[in-house]
Each structure stands twice: as structure tokens, then as C-alpha cells.
Amino acid sequence: MLFSHPEFDHHEHLSFFCDAETGLKSIIAIHNTSRGPALGGCRMYPYATDEEAVRDVLRLSRGMTYKSALANLDLGGGKSVIIGDSRKHKTEALLEAMGRHLESLGGHYIAAEDSGTSVSDLKIMGRQTRHVAGIASRPGFDGTPSNGDPSPVTAYGTFIGLKAAVKHRFGSSDLTGLKVAIQGVGNVGFRLARHLKQAGAELWVTDIHTDNLQRAVEELGATAVSSSDILTLPVDVVAPCAMGAVLNDHSIPALKASIVAGAANNLLDRPEHDEALKRRGVLYAPDFAINAGGIIDVFYERTGGSPDNVRAHVETIGDTLTEIFERSERTGLPTGTIANELAEERFKKHAAGAGLAPQRLTCTG
Ligand code: NAD
Known about the structure:
Blueprint: E1 13-19, E2 24-32, E3 38-45, H1 50-70, E4 76-83, H2 92-104, E5 109-113, H3 119-125, E6 138-139, E7 145-146, H4 151-170, E8 179-183, H5 187-198, E9 202-206, H6 210-220, E10 223-224, E11 237-240, E12 259-260, H7 273-279, E13 283-284, H8 287-290, H9 293-303, H10 307-331, H11 335-348
Family: Belongs to the Glu/Leu/Phe/Val dehydrogenases family.
InterPro entries: Aminoacid_DH-like_N_sf, Glu/Leu/Phe/Val/Trp_DH, Glu/Leu/Phe/Val/Trp_DH_C, Glu/Leu/Phe/Val/Trp_DH_dimer, Glu/Phe/Leu/Val/Trp_DH_bac/arc, NAD(P)-bd_dom_sf
Keywords: NAD, Oxidoreductase
């Protein structure tokens, strides 16, 4: 039963869609629209069971409510999943059918790319609906052209957040000589490394993709280390930018850095690892606070904001993190718990009279 599902958490709306002709089976979950229309990625994944797909979409959708509220965006939280193998089952007809599913919700949910979908897939869905995002070519926030890829903005936001953590811990945001270990130098991690290098930091990097690793070594003078060593190096900051659940029973006791600040989603293996980091004296920049640059970028694409609007908003990530760190110190609660509380304050404040109201859908043009 869905209403009693452990991950249900007061979702406003769930929509199941099946298109026999194209084989599309999709679910759209809208967690909360009190701040605005729900925006989140459309993931295509070969879930082993329907239950797995439901669990994933519910968790991801709720996470988007928290991320957007914490970033002070007029957006709600939602997510969609397509059940299937993106390498085998993705066809133009299936993506167009997904576009019809999106259209049927009239803009209450807006889809962006996620694992298993690309900007070109979103453009195909866009033949059937306006409610897709992250696909427009426009000037990027740093002056270079953007094709809709949010990674440069995510990397800049992570850099700003990392600086706020350094300022809080060491009393200065001068990064000269700061030692940083980066796990994963892909789209976000490499750009973060470049910002850090320009600010005078010393870098240690790892990646399972040797081309990416080589690029960081050659272009940025970073020191390559093995994947198994990266989290336990004697550095000031560890920046996980590859995959989730890396802060766990095994890694936390072995950390030598006093700050963890990276872009990867769902860094904590279990909720109690938030407290475990605090007990170890590690300042943790909650992932959904520090990696909000991408959703900020997509929001301004939808609302027609300028590159300067994007930059100014992304820079508020530093203020939000400082507020989290200070409140954590005052209350003794770990930073992840504080980030959740702050996000709830920000979306519950808007709740009265809101939620799936058409007049709130100001961002679907
Ligand atoms: P990416 O795939 O471009 O980069 C990830 C890199 O990590 C790749 O180079 C990959 O080879 C490497 N990697 C994977 N497993 C590894 C391992 N075990 N050890 C070392 N390296 C490993 O992805 P990305 O877009 O840079 O995103 C990185 C993380 O940030 C992801 O968790 C993503 O969900 C999160 N994130 C990204 C964005 C964005 O705008 N791209 C926004 C928010 C959050």
C-alpha cells in the first residue's frame, strides 16, 4: 500500500504511466510544491522490481524538495523514473511517450536529465511537452557557452561551499597551501579541482577512469593516488565527487581531514553517520546544500535569469553553509540534521494555502 510505504512521507502526488505500444513504464513522484512546481531529474534504470522503482522515485523526489528549499529556490521537489535499460530499451517513441506523461501533469512536475537520460533525450520528450528543463543553449555563468550541462555551476557552488567550510574551521578563506583530496575528477570534480588550483590549493586526486585522472595530473599538477587511499590521506579537506555512501562505518574512523565537502549525492551511508562525523570532529558540508549549483542553474534557465543572477544565487551556498555550521555549533546537533531542519523551515513556511495550485506554476514557460 503506497500511503503506508516507509518512504511515502506525505507525497502530494504519484503518477504511474504505461504505454503498451512503446513499452514505457514510468512513475512521476511529486513530494511537495509549496515553494513552486516540482523539478527533478528523470532517471532511466533497469529496476529489478516495481517496488525498487517506487522506493527510488519517492526518496529522490523528497530529496529534491529539501535541496531546492535549502537553496531558497521557488521550486518544489519531484523526480521521475523510467523502468528499463537505457542502452537497450530507450527509443524515440518511448521518450515521446514519456513527454506525454509529463504533459499530462500540466507543469506540476518539470523533468531534467539524470542517470540514464541525456540532454538530447529530454529534447525528444520536449516534442510533446514544455515541461522539460536543462536543455537550452545560452551563455554560461562564467561567460562560456552552456549547452544546459549544470556541472560547471555545480562545481563553482561546491568551491564556494568548500571555502565557507575552510573559513569556519580555520578562520580564513585563503586557500593558499590548503591540502585537498578529490575523489572523482569527472564533470564536477575536475572543475572543482581547477577552481582550487587557481586559488592556490595543493591537490591529490583519484579516478577509476584513467583519462580523467591523467588530465588532472597533467593540466593541474595534481598528485594521483589510488582509490583506496584517497579518503584517508593526511589532508585538510576531502572532496568526494564520484559516488554516494562513501562516508560509512569503514571510512569515518579512518578520516584524517577535518573537513568533508564534496559534490556527490547521498554521501552518508546511513543517517547516523552525520553524528559519527561530528563525534570525530569532522566538519561535514551536507551534500544537498553544497551541490545545489546545478538546480540553481536549471531554475534560471526556466525563468530567463542572466548569468549574473546565476552566479549571485550560487554564491549564497556559502551563506547557507555558514548558517548550518554556526547553528550546529550552537545546538550541538550534526550539520546534516541542521540542514534538514533549515530546509523544512524554508518549505513549510510557504505551505499555507499552497501545493499543486496552478497559480503557483510560474516557471513553466
Ligand atoms: P561524472 O560521471 O562526470 O564524474 C564522476 C567521476 O567519478 C568519473 O570520472 C568516474 O570515473 C569517477 N569515479 C566513479 N567511481 C569512482 C571510484 N570508485 N573511485 C574514484 N573515482 C570514481 O559525474 P559528475 O557529473 O561529475 O557528478 C559527480 C557526483 O556529483 C555524482 O555523485 C553526482 O550525482 C553529483 N552531482 C552532480 C551534479 C552535476 O551538475 N553534474 C549536480 C549535483 C550532484
